[in-house]
Amino acid sequence: MPRSALTGTRIRERRTMIGMRQADLARLAGISPSYLNLIEHNRRRIGGKLLVELARNLGVEASALTEGAGAALIDTLREAAAGHGEAEADLPRLEEFAGRFPGWAGLIAERHRRVRELERTVEMLTDRMTHDPFLSASLHEVISAVTAIRSTAAILADTEDIDPDWQRRFHRNLSDDSRRLAEGAQALVAYLDEGTEDPGVQSSPQEEVEAFLRARDWHLPELERSLPPDPARIVAEARELTSGPARELALAHLKRYRRDAELMPLQRFSEAARGAALDPGALAQAFGVDPGAAFRRLAALPEDRAGGPVGLVACDGSGTLTFRKPVEGFSLPRFGAACPLWPLYQALSRPMAPVRAVVELGGATPQRFLTYAICQPVLAAGFDGPQVLEAAMLILPEGTVALPRMAAQPVGTSCRICPRRGCVARREPSILADGF
Predict the structure, then answer these.
(1) Which of 78, 208, 360, 376 lies at a C-alpha separation of 20 to 30 Å from 107?
(2) What are the strands, taking DSSP E only, across 52-199?
(3) Residue 373, φ and ψ in degrees, nearest 5
(4) What is the rounded distance in angstroms from the CA atom of residue 218 to the CA atom of residue 223?
(5) What is the DSSP pairing of strand 409-411 with strand 388-397?
(6) 131: Cβ contacts below 8 Å, ≥ 6 apart
(7) What are phi and psi of 388, to 5 degrees?
(8) Which SUPFAM superfamilies match (predicted)?
(9) Can you say how many angstroms the Cα of residue 193 is from the centroid of all Cα atoms in its chain?
C-alpha cells in the first residue's frame, strides 16, 4: 500500500492516541464528522489546507501524516524481516504497521540494530580470542608457571628424606613460580577487562596505525596542501601511536599518502572519480599511476567526495592482512587469514592480472559489494632481490556504486565466523553455522 494512501490511518491513530473524539476534530477542522470518517478510513484523499489544519489540531507536522514512518525505520524493519517466512509475507503491510504502531515498530527496529551490534561484537571477540598473540603468550606463561609449581610440589611431596638445602631451593622456586603465576594472571585479567570495555583495543603496531587513521576518517587534509608539514611531525604528535614500530609504520604510510596526493590532487581526482563511477582502472590510466595507487587514493577520499563509503584491504604474499579499512557490512578480521574466496586472494595467485567481482556477504541480510583487486610486485631490493608481492582489494558497497550485472560470489569474513553452510573452501567449522 503506498504511503500516501495511509494518511487517513495515521490521522485516526494520532487522534486516538491523544484521546480526541472524531466529532471534535471534525469541528475544529471545519468539516463534517461523516467526511472525516471517510478520510480516516482512507476513502477520501486529502491535502493542502485541510491536511495542514488537521495536523495542527493533532499537534504534529503535516509530513508525519503523509509520509508516516521514516525511510530508515522501514529499511531496518525490512532487514529484521529477512529470512522469516511469515514476516516476509507481510512486507506489503510494513508501512501500515509502522504507521499504526510507531512505538512497536521503533522497538523492533531498535532491537534489530542491537542484535546486529552484538553479532559484530561476537565476531570481533571470537576473532580476538582465537588469534590474539598477547592472549596466546599470556596463557603460555600461565601454563608454564602452573607446570613448574606442580613439578616442584610433586618432588617435595614424594621425597621424604630430601636434603634441607635442596628443600630450601625448592621452596624458593615455589615462591618465584607462584609470584610469576600471579603476575601473569593479573596481567591477563587486566588485558581482558580492558578489552571488555573496548573490544577494539590495540595490541599490535598495525592496529595502532589503523586507530590513528580511523580517528581521522582515513583522510589527512594537512598532507593535501601544496606545502604540507613534515610527516614525521604528524607522527610524533599522534597520541594513538604509542610504540616505535607503530610510528615507523605510520611514517611509511604517510609518506606514501603524500606521494599519492602529489600524483592525484584531491580536487581533480575526486571530480574524475565521480565521472568514472569510482573505476580504479580508468583513474589509474587518467593519472598515469598504477592501480594500487588509485585504490589507496579512492580509500582516502572523504565520503562526501567519493559518494559513499569506500573500503580497502591489502595483504602480502603470505596472505596476511597488512592494511584494513572496513566498510559497513563487510567485516575484516583483526588476526589470522580471511575468507579464501575473496577476490584479494584470487589476484594474489595471478600477479598483475586485474580482478573485478561482485561479492555477497552471508548473514541474516546478505549484502553485496563491487570489488576490484590486483596483485603487484614490490621491488624493494631491486631486480636481483626476492620477489615480494602485495595484493589489494577495493570494496565498494552497493549504495556507493551501481553493481554490474554479473553473478555474485558468496564470501564470508573468515571460516570461524562465517554462517555459510557447504562452502567448498571451508577450513574449519563455524561457530555461527546455526546462527545467533
Answers:
(1) 360
(2) none
(3) -140, 150
(4) 12
(5) unpaired
(6) 333, 334, 335, 336
(7) -115, 125
(8) lambda repressor-like DNA-binding domains (SSF47413)
(9) 23
pLDDT of residue 267: 92
Residue with the three cell numbers 565521480? 274
**Cell digits of residue 2:** 503506498
- Considering only CA atoms, which of 287, 353, 351 is closest in space to residue 315? 351
Written as nine digits, the cell of 284 is 589509474
CA distances from 26 to 12, 37, 48, 57, 65 (A): 12, 9, 16, 10, 16
Alpha-carbon distances, residue 87 vs 60, 62, 78, 104, 157 (angstroms):
30, 30, 9, 15, 67
**Cα separation values, 401 from 308, 367, 370, Å:** 8, 13, 8
- In this prediction the pTM is 0.60
184-to-146, 152, 171, 328 alpha-carbon distances in Å: 11, 19, 20, 37
- Cell for 44? 477520501
Helix or strand or coil: residue 296? helix
Question: Residues 67-117: pLDDT tens digits?
Answer: 655 556 777 777 777 767 777 777 777 776 776 777 788 788 888 878 877
Q: Is the separation of the CB atoms in 351 and 345 below 8 Å? A: no
Q: Which cell goes with 10?
A: 495515521
Could you give phi then psi for residue 420, rounded to 5 degrees?
-70, 135
Give the whole-angstrom CA distance, residue 428 versus residue 336. Answer: 13
Helix axis angle, 48-58 relative to 22-29, nearest 10°? 130
Segment (H or E) for 270: helix 266-275
Instruction: Classify residue 48 by burial, with Cβ atoms within 10 Å: 0-12, 13-18, 19+.
Output: exposed
CA dist., res. 417 & res. 411, Å (int): 12
> Which residue is listed with cell 495536523?
55
Rounded CA-CA distance 62/74 in Å is: 19
- pLDDT tens for 257-273 read 999 999 999 999 999 99
Whole-number Å distance between alpha carbons of 100 and 90:
15
Q: How far apart are CA 314 and CA 389, in angstroms?
A: 11
